[in-house]
Amino acid sequence: MIKTLQWFPKRFSPGDMDASGGDRLLGKTELSRLAVLIRETAQNSWDARNDRGRPLFGISLRRTDYRLRDDLADLLSEGRHGDLASMRRHANFRMLEIYDRGTRGLDGPSDLSPAGKGRSARFQDLILKFGVSHNNGTTGGTYGFGKTAAFAYSGIGTVIYWTRCRNPEGEIEDRFIVSAFGESYQEKGVQFTGRHWWGQRSEDGESVLPVVGDDAAALGARLFERGFEPGETGTSLLILDPLIADEEDSEDASVEPLHRLRSDAEEMEQDFERRARHAIRANLWPKMITAPGDVESPMALELTVNSRPVDLGIDEGGSLLLWGSGLNAIRAARSDSSEIRTPQGVAVEVIEILRYRKVIGHLALVRRIPAAEPYLDSDDLDPAREEESRMLRIALMRGQAELVVTTVDWVRREAPAGTDWLAVFKSADDFDEYYAEAEPPAHDNWVTEGSSSESSKIIRHTKTRVRDRIIEAIHPAVEEQVPTSPKFFRSTGALSRRLGAILPGPAPQVYDDSGRSGTGRRRTERRARWTVEAGAPRLVRTAADGTQEQEVRFIVAGDGPVGRVRLSVSLLGDEGLHEPVPPQDLAIRWQHAAPEGKDMAVVRTGEEAGVRFLGAPRRALRVEITAGAPDGRP
């Protein structure tokens, strides 16, 4: 006979929140509930990894027999959480076990005692608190969305935790506790939030504590499928009655929690297996990629359904190897290792993304040859797939966490005929905190709204530079107009960024995007007070008469909050001669800038702006944007 745990419902006190309001406070995400669950629990596991060794992250779905259901019902028989009573009598009641090993477990104080500066408080943060932020750039997430994701995926809002960690005295300790989110209610004149815990009450009766030691280990071994090896630490959680039905069905309020309306259990489990496999591959693939010089990938991943292992396709190749070659090229560039090539033997190009001459991240451009590697219909990581849920072409991730934030389509163009590509952008470690700040609670995007001014500027700059760099490499701007000379160069002496193509001629100090001299001359000691960083011209449209509307995006840096920019366009002729185009013939239109005259505008420094103009058909152009003070000083 299993021993019943003591029940602790949370009374409302000033400042408390209704248990059902947690997900609304954290906001919404476009991800499915299963994807959020896998992303957040894996991120928390990665953040808790031991200093040495390789962590394991696993997911296991299984059915229950009547003995296990009776044990669960007896264990949680005390208290008011009506849905728990249904466990005992429903044969298709399932459990989803999520576990990690090679991690520190839920360590720190097991009550709300102060942990002390610099000490871990994982047990408090995950079990007893809500929305604790870990967004310092070094970790993947918070205990906000990650916590609610587990409860949201339970048909009865209940999760069991078993962790083995080192307690504050340094001894290995088992801890066992149950928690639930439900509806708020009133009883005997007292209001309750709807949050519940089952464990053992503190001596003063005002708080809940986990079951610890041998009793906790015995409960864990009885209910959980994955145990602990001697000396092993980590955490397991058991989601009761997981919502494994189709995402559309699980959002439908008419579907009963225990899936009484679904008769084909095997079909439902197969669908869960497919979606869970894709969520692991799409969101955790960087953890599958062995770094240059290593013998193992950073993290071991497992998925089982009814004790049957599911192949995650780590060794099957396909697009996973292409994404991996992009990530490894960035890893190699940061460690000065050798060049990385795709399985087809194509070198991966790594481009430094700079802001004010500081590297804020690296872009790896992976080219592929479709004729040499046919697309596979079964490859769920291939951006070329036509399914609505396909991966987009640019994967974003932070430098230290190395977890996929999202994939985006910043270029929005089809690949040229006979070619294909994908890309990986990884922020520089020193700038991780700015990218972390730009992530919403689900860590599934980089947004500018709600972020600090500096973080917003970095995100906008990243989007512009990544897009422009890919367009320069994959979609050359107006190919008829561009001769085989440098694509663009910067003249710091003239305080300008020259774009497009120019024939060789006397040029002042020339620098490429890494800040190294492009002419071999010594760099001038005097630094410009006003500079322009801009992308290559982008063809917007071609008119019936052959004139071409082009767009340039740029950012001005200078000594004040605003600066003045001037656009100059010349037609290139023989021997480097050029003919200036009158501003009135360019039909100039400024974006996010205040026009002044025909060819000038005032812009805010540090913020992206743009300009569109008309170019003559079939002529090579020199495009120059110069910047100065708003009062006309250079």
Please describe what this structure looks like.
The protein has 634 residues and is an alpha+beta fold. It has 11 helices and 30 strands. The strands form 4 sheets. Strands 1, 2, 3, 4, 5, 6, 7, 8, 9, 10, 11 and 12 form a 12-stranded mixed β-sheet that branches. Strands 18, 19, 20, 24, 25, 27, 28 and 30 form an 8-stranded antiparallel β-sheet that branches. It has a 5-stranded mixed β-sheet with strand order 13-14-17-15-16, sandwiched between helices. The radius of gyration is 29 Å and the shape is elongated. Residues 135-144, 248-263 and 478-528 have low confidence and may be disordered.
Number of helices: 11
Instruction: Tell me, briefly, the overall form.
Output: elongated
Backbone structural class:
alpha+beta
| Estimated radius of gyration | 29 Å
Rounded mean pLDDT score: 81
Unreliable stretches (pLDDT < 50, length at least 5) are: 135-144, 248-263, 478-528
Strands, helices and their partners?
Elements: E1 6-11, H1 22-26, H2 33-47, E2 56-63, H3 66-75, E3 94-101, H4 122-128, H5 145-152, E4 158-166, E5 172-181, E6 185-187, E7 190-201, E8 208-209, E9 211-212, H6 213-223, E10 234-240, H7 247-251, H8 265-284, E11 300-305, E12 308-309, H9 319-334, E13 349-355, E14 358-368, E15 394-397, E16 404-408, E17 420-427, H10 432-437, H11 453-474, E18 489-491, E19 496-500, E20 510-511, E21 531-534, E22 538-542, E23 548-557, E24 562-572, E25 578-580, E26 589-591, E27 594-596, E28 600-604, E29 608-615, E30 621-628
Parallel strand pairs: 2-11, 15-17
Antiparallel strand pairs: 1-7, 2-3, 3-10, 4-5, 4-10, 5-7, 5-9, 6-7, 7-8, 11-12, 13-14, 14-17, 15-16, 18-19, 18-20, 19-30, 21-23, 22-23, 23-29, 24-25, 24-28, 24-30, 26-29, 27-28
